[in-house]
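User: Sequence for Methyltransferase type 11 domain-containing protein below. Tokens please.
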Amino acid sequence: MNRFFEDKEVAINYLKHRPHYSAEIAEAIINYLAEYKVKPFQMALDIGCGPGQLTRSLAPYFDEVLGVDVSSAQIDVAKTAQNPKNLSFSVGIAEDLPTPDSSVDLITSATASHYFDWTEFRKEVNRVLKPNGCLAVLSFDVIYIDHPDDVIMKKLNDCIDSYLDYTNNQDLKASTPVDYQHTMEKYTTLQLPFADQKSVDIDTRYNGSVTEFIECIKTYAAAINFMKDNPGTSYFMDFQMSIMSILGGGDPDVTMVTSWMPIFIRFARKPGTNL
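Assistant: Structure tokens for Methyltransferase type 11 domain-containing protein:
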């Protein structure tokens, strides 16, 4: 698994600037789990948890939730947040899960599973899930900006696509640490375990300033590496200025936009006895 998120400043920015997953995301996951599992649910495992955005949203539904990440910096930052008593965090990897056989009701991974060694991860998922236990992997491709004027919205999102073109922008492509084809194809190319599978798409929206939007983009893995590879670059400032120009100018710190994140979730259920 890639380890470029281990920098402490990166971890802090990830917690500060990445949007938290909406209640609708957690509800979709729990609804799938509840089709064949009886409440109360005992154990959830969130892999590649980062500072815990998805992990915390699962806490109300389980007796125990464990967030696992390869980065000790991400885990340290996760522990600084206000966490419920049934939530804990640990350094670990997807290919060697820190739980006993048949002990977990739910395994999740948000914007991380495209970094896993899926041959080994599938074995671990099968090992630790209880019968009827579920795997839910989710991510998104690009965060866009909504606008009431369709012409302006198209200009904004064409601008976003242009600046975040991992295929044709050779500098950005060179800094991309993983093949984004999995996310571009909504994880349909990932070989999930188990025959019982389902896919769900959910659009979530967030309000914030243009500056906050750009700071979120700068937490992308490709952006992190690009800034390391190109110290002093004005790339993301130019990106911000382009957005402000389309919006008619102003102060990016106070100009508010509604960004929308097209989330896709892929589910798989371990075989077990029907309810």
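The first helix runs from residue 8 to 17.
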